[in-house]
Amino acid sequence: MKNHRFTSDFFNRPTPVVARGLLGKFLARRMGKKIVRVIITETEAYCGKKDLACHASKGRTKRTEVMFGPAGHAYVYLIYGMYHCLNIVTGKVDYPAAVLIRGACPVRGRARALAPEGPWGRAASNGMNGPGKLCRFLRIDKTLNDEDLIKSKRLWVEEGVKLKSMQIGRSKRIGIDYAGPYKSKLWRFFVKRWTF
DNA sequence: CAAGAGATCATCT
DNA sequence: GATGATCTCTTGA
Fold first, then answer.
1. Which of A3, A10, A87, A169 is most buried when burial is the number of CB atoms within 10 A of its CB?
2. Structure confidence by residue, pLDDT tens digits, A12-45
């Protein structure tokens, strides 16, 4: 089965739809000569400048500029001085929105069976259960900021294999208590249970 | 198991 | 000068 890379059609849709749609899909990262593929298990949507949790709500700045750009580009930033977070820009140009990739699990091996668990979708400890750890595992840093995932040879998203079934959960987003009414939006999506 | 603190720096005020 | 879309380790019940 040939892995099918997503084009801008996939990312140029409402942000929560993209966030949900990315679950169970493959994130591919070239590391040297090897291509590492992981299955996305947890995402969050950050939707436009009205969304007080979205970095772009503070305005169009050098850092958030990428989010105002075309869908399918990577928005990578440094948080707490030591961790990187990977986002994928969604929607039309000038509409600042992105999906944060919060968790994934390996395509091969025992960890795959363990990935989803619990009502909060807390993934098993596989090295990629958390946005900071995921970026550490895949060696993602600011050199990949603004990377075009539609064309990139370093990072992209694929359809991957079809899972037999997948149960999806949703919740409030993590770590955004400052976001006023937007902190309670159910814009976090995670794989609860799957069969393959 | 839960709660708290420290690490550490780009970005914005 | 303050603050995070986090993680890990330590403490203590």
1. A87
2. 999 999 999 999 999 999 999 999 999 999 999 9
**From the Cβ of A78, is strand B under 7 Å away?**
yes
Please say whether the beta carbons of A174 and A102 come within 8 A.
yes
Which positions of strand B lie within 7 Å of protein CB atoms? 7-13
Q: Measured from the CB, is A44 under 7 Å from any atom of strand C?
A: yes
- Exposed, middle or buried by CB within 10 Å (0-12, 13-18, 19+), for A157? buried
A178 Cβ contacts chain C strand, under 7 Å: yes
Supply A3's token pair. Answer: 């892995």
Q: Is the CB of A167 under 7 A from strand B?
A: no
Q: Which residue did the predictor score with more confidence, A107 or A145?
A: A145
